[in-house]
Write a structure and sequence with these properties.
With 139 residues, this protein is an all-alpha fold. The chain has helices at residues 21-24, 42-45, 53-57, 72-85, 89-99, 101-112. It has one domain (6-112). The chain has 6 helices and no strands.
Length: 139
């Protein structure tokens, strides 16, 4: 999950692309929200956060830097992820803002690393992509 370009793996909305099923899959692998758009699906290209005018015009890196944090688009995304995947975009952004990207990535590595094999647990599928162990959502 951690690389020489740690910033590129965290989307403006606070999503850790390193635990996304589109990023983890073998076929048609997504390069992450900040990666090259060449092979991305239409859904990812039309993301309301990524295409936000404030984000583009003000050249901000994360949604928490916006004067409209947290906007309706982010609240909707956050509610969906909290309900379906037990993860909060707003909480992620607040952690990045308060503790820095390095600490956030360290915590994410602990949270999304399989305790059995050391592989990556997918936020969308709820299991380790390497060994299939299901994630415990009691955190």
């Amino acid at each position: 999950m951690e690389s020489s370009n740690e910033f590129s793996i965290i989307a403006p909305c606070g999503m850790n692309c390193g635990v996304c099923m589109a990023y983890l899959r073998e076929r048609n692998k997504c390069p992450g929200c900040r990666g090259d758009d060449t092979n991305k699906t239409v859904i990812r290209l039309r993301c309301k956060i990524k295409t936000c005018e404030v984000y583009k015009d003000e050249n901000i890196e994360f949604c928490f830097e916006c004067g409209d944090f947290s906007c309706d688009n982010l609240k909707h995304l956050d509610k969906r992820y909290r309900t379906k995947y037990h993860m909060s975009m707003i909480e992620n952004l607040e952690n990045i803002k308060n503790f820095g990207l390095k600490k956030f990535l360290e915590d994410e590595k602990v949270r999304w690393t399989c305790s059995d094999c050391g592989g990556t647990i997918c936020v969308h599928k709820g299991y380790c992509y390497d060994c299939g162990k299901e994630m415990n959502h009691n955190y």
